[in-house]
Design goal:
The complex is a heterotrimer. Chain A has ten helices and ten strands. Chain A is α/β, with parallel strands linked by helices. By secondary structure, chain B is mainly α. Chain B has three domains: about 30 residues; about 70 residues, no CATH class; about 220 residues, MetI-like fold, CATH 1.10.3720. Chain B contains 14 helices and three strands. Classes of the chains: A alpha/beta, B mainly alpha, C mainly alpha.
Chain lengths: ~260, ~350, ~270
């Protein structure tokens, strides 16, 4: 079942004549990991950043088409490109979380980092906060490492720990979808392994879309894969089909390393 | 050739060191008379150029007076070595001690007057104007910085940023004139009291440091990485929450440094304050009463002063130099270094 | 509630930007009205003694010009030392001191020059005024040169050395050229700053009502005369002060904008 449905979606950056994404059609399925792959500049990050409309921090972007998000209580799809009001943006971003390429710990303690999203969502009760922070840190596979220094600055953690902290912070607000924008490209192989395991673990609770430039990573963890090239979605299918049995010539060339 | 160039550049760089040390030593030597005379109590003494008469019993103190007069002359000789132009220094010594010759010859008692100098009034004036300026400028400067770095779209932030920086480039004397003839009357109407006062001087000083403070605060805020802001927005934070929870904590050190630096500038500002503070050596009794600050005391009295009066002005300069040097060092070396 | 607070705060900070602009507008409009009202072309032809500003404007330019002639080469060479030659503590100390000196109270520099030049030579002089301004300019030029040279990529220096050029040759022919635009801009801004200074001139050059090119005498200064004129009781003196302020501000802002324009054009 899809939680997000992207239909005939095109995207144009301000001051540019040609759209950076053209007629994209794909789905993000519930409790699955969907990987977006393709060479640099293919638009995979642009697409990801459309899915929580983080693009809108900078004015002048043009969206065409539809991106639907499943509303949990009514089981109906809503078009997130219709959103105009600030409070709707806030709700959208609480439902669709995001993890960036570089870890982004906020300049505050470990505890406050994880509690931040909960606090701005209006949770004030101290014991509830503590419970949910602990839960989130456990979900982020970080609890054991940080439980006795929750009040220390998050800046003191290693890169891999910081990234897991950011994941815990995103998980804490219980989003329906989390978008990962090359989350391991700034990390060493061991930290990368830990995060990959974590992602597979997390899909029990959330649906995941991940941009990666690492094909092995996509093949290791994802259930579905979309191959993009120069702003077009070339092929979207189950991961094993993409990697073992691509229908398109371009996909095959990319997978086998002939370009990219 | 290589060597010549290298040594040339080394000596030019050392010039900075020499000048700063030179300023300190020169000010110290020039204020030596005042330091010897008043000591550290100078700082807490509210008098300036005030003649105090001292009555001394003639018999017991005739000797000492004579001695002290001899000392004075020696001192002046020393001084005229240092300041060779002051040939007329002996005429000026009435500044220091007036010895009534008639009294000396015919009376039992000797009356002498002694001119007293103290720095309390200008020090208080300097601190209070700076404080008023800071209270006025701080919130507005923060607002401007937030507006420029976070709210305004680029095509608006750019020209406004330039306008604010141009405001910082306007010579301080212009602020003073504008303040005296256009700004102060309005404030005086609103608050009452004189047009020249602690309050108006402080406010104009505030307007003057405003753009400087805003510009460097904005620069500090701009060091916050975009991706950090994005990840807060991605959690559903509002703009205000991003500013309060991410940008301010992230650039806190730099912002504090900017504020202290602006404070250091305000302390030493002369012309904007000179027009407005009233230039009277009296402790302010209210926020709208006139007083004086260290730079203004120097600006208005340097040409005319001589002897102990001039030395006292150098003493004031030394105090100002040490204070602002300390404050600016703290801002630059601790806060702004740490921020970058 | 969160959205309301958000709106209020954003509104307030927009308001403060407007306040800042309002002050700029107020000052400029005042200057324009008062300054243009008293402005007349003959101001450029007569000296202050005849109710004009000619000697003052020329005097201010000479003072700032001499200061620049002293401050720019010294500052640039010192900046080169810090960035290119200085290794370790000493260069760092100089860099910090120059940074601090940049914000030192200008009146204190006036007092310093008074003590070391005016007193020994027996009176105020244009020379003393120019030295005071040069001392103000020095750290600004050092700072600009230092910053701009630090932006020049190291490979450029290495490439020069690899061709067999000596270090000072590389610095003069390659590094300085690469950083030229930035340094020029910084120097223009420094010049704009010192040409508007009053406090360091008050008791070093003082001012003069007459045209003078004699640097050993009290020297005509636009800014010091503005201060004197503005405090005169007669309306005509004040009007002249406004006209002079107008000219000074236009001058300073023009140099400033020229500097910015210069950088911007080169960049794009």
């Amino acid at each position: 079942m899809p939680v997000m449905n992207i239909k005939d979606f095109s995207f144009t950056y301000p001051g540019v004549d040609h759209p950076s994404l053209k007629n994209i059609n794909m789905k993000i399925r519930k409790n699955k990991i969907t990987a977006l792959i393709g060479p640099s500049g293919c638009g995979k990050s642009t697409l990801l950043r459309s899915m929580n409309r983080i693009h809108d921090l900078y004015p002048g972007n043009k969206y065409d088409g539809i991106i639907e998000l499943l509303k949990a209580d009514t089981q109906k799809m809503e078009n997130i490109l219709d959103i105009k009001k600030e409070n709707e943006f806030i709700q959208l971003r609480q439902r669709v979380g995001m993890i960036f390429q570089k870890p982004t710990p906020f300049p505050m303690s470990i505890f406050d980092n994880v509690a931040y999203g909960l606090k701005i969502a209006g949770i004030k009760d101290k014991s509830e906060l503590e419970g949910r922070v602990e839960k989130a840190l456990k979900d982020g596979a970080l609890w054991k490492e940080v439980q006795d220094r929750l009040n220390k600055s998050a800046m003191g953690l290693s890169g891999g720990q910081q990234q897991r902290l950011c994941i815990a912070r995103a998980v804490a607000v219980k989003p329906e979808v989390i978008l990962f924008d090359e989350p391991t490209s700034a990390l060493d192989p061991i930290s990368t392994g830990a995060i990959e395991e974590l992602l597979v673990e997390l899909k029990k609770d959330v649906s995941i879309a991940i941009v990666t430039h690492n094909m092995q990573q996509a093949s290791r963890i994802s259930d579905y894969t979309a191959f993009m090239y120069l702003g077009d979605l070339i092929e979207f299918d189950k991961t094993e089909n993409i990697f073992l049995n691509p229908k398109e010539k371009q996909t095959e060339d990319y997978i086998t390393g002939r370009f990219g | 050739m290589e060597k010549i160039f290298r040594n040339l550049s080394l000596s030019s760089a050392s010039l900075v060191f020499i000048i700063l040390i030179g300023i300190f030593i020169t000010l110290f030597l020039a204020s030596k008379d005042a330091i010897n005379e008043f000591g550290i109590g100078f700082i807490t003494n509210p008098n300036w150029n005030k003649e105090i008469s001292i009555e001394i019993d003639a018999k017991s103190s005739n000797e000492t007076i004579k001695n002290s007069k001899v000392n004075e002359i020696e001192d002046f000789n020393l001084e005229s070595d240092l300041f060779s132009d002051e040939d007329d220094i002996m005429i000026d010594d009435e500044d220091d001690i007036i010895i009534d010759e008639d009294d000396m010859l015919f009376n039992e008692d000797i009356k002498t007057t002694f001119t007293d100098y103290g720095a309390l009034v200008p020090i208080v004036g300097t601190i209070l104007t700076t404080l008023i300026a800071l209270i006025f400028a701080l919130p507005i400067a923060m607002g401007i910085a937030v507006f420029l770095s976070e709210i305004a779209p680029k095509n608006i932030a750019y020209p406004i940023g330039i306008a604010i920086e141009l405001l910082a480039a306007i010579p301080s004397i212009i602020f003073g004139m504008w303040g005296l003839y256009y700004f102060a009357p309005i404030i005086a109407d609103l608050v009452g009291g004189y047009q020249v006062s602690l309050l108006t001087a402080g406010l104009v000083l505030g307007v003057m440091i405003l753009p400087f403070m805003a510009a460097i605060t904005r620069d500090s805020m701009n060091t916050t990485p975009d991706v950090l802001k994005e990840s807060a927005y991605a959690m559903g934070a509002t703009k205000f929450e991003v500013i309060k929870d991410i940008i301010f904590p992230y650039s806190k050190v730099g912002i504090i440094g900017s504020i202290i630096l602006a404070l250091g500038r305000a302390l030493g500002e002369t012309m904007a304050v000179a027009f407005l503070i009233g230039s009277i050596f009296a402790l302010p009794t209210a926020i709208n009463s006139p007083t004086i600050s260290i730079p203004v005391a120097m600006a208005n009295n340097f040409g005319e002063a001589s002897g102990l009066g001039e030395s006292s002005l150098f003493y004031l300069a030394l105090i100002l130099f040490v204070i602002s040097f300390t404050i600016i060092s703290i801002a630059k070396l601790y806060f702004l270094k740490k921020a970058s | 509630m969160r959205l309301l607070i958000n709106k209020i705060v954003l509104g307030l900070s927009t308001l403060s930007a407007l306040i800042g602009l309002a002050f700029l507008g107020w000052i400029l409009v005042t200057l324009f009205i008062k300054g243009l009202g008293s402005f007349h072309f003959t101001l450029f032809l007569n000296d202050l003694i005849n109710g004009g500003l000619r000697n003052l404007i020329i005097g201010q330019f000479i003072l700032a010009g001499i200061a620049a002639a002293i401050g720019i080469p010294l500052g640039m060479v010192a900046g080169i030392y810090i960035q290119e030659y200085g290794r370790g503590k000493y260069a760092e100390v100089i860099r910090n001191l120059s940074d601090i000196m940049m914000s030192a109270p200008s009146i204190v520099i006036g007092a310093f020059v008074y003590a070391i030049i005016v007193v020994p030579t027996g009176g105020t002089s244009g020379f003393a005024g120019a030295i005071a301004l040069a001392i103000m300019m020095l750290p600004i030029v050092i700072n600009t040169t230092d910053n701009m040279l630090s932006l020049v990529p190291r490979e450029l220096r290495e490439a020069g050395i690899a061709l067999g050029a000596s270090k000072y040759k590389v610095i003069i022919d390659i590094v300085i050229k690469a950083a030229k635009v930035g340094i020029m801009t910084g120097i223009l801004l420094a010049f704009a700053r010192i040409i508007g200074e009053t406090a360091p001139l008050l008791f070093t050059s003082e001012t003069s009502n007459y045209f003078s090119l004699d640097l050993t005498e009290s020297f005509p200064s636009l800014t010091v005369s503005i201060y004197d004129l503005a405090n005169e009781p007669e309306q005509s003196s004040r009007d002249l002060a406004w006209a002079a302020s107008f000219i000074l501000t236009v001058l300073v802002l023009t140099i400033n904008l020229a500097g910015r324009f210069f950088t911007r054009n080169k960049k794009s």
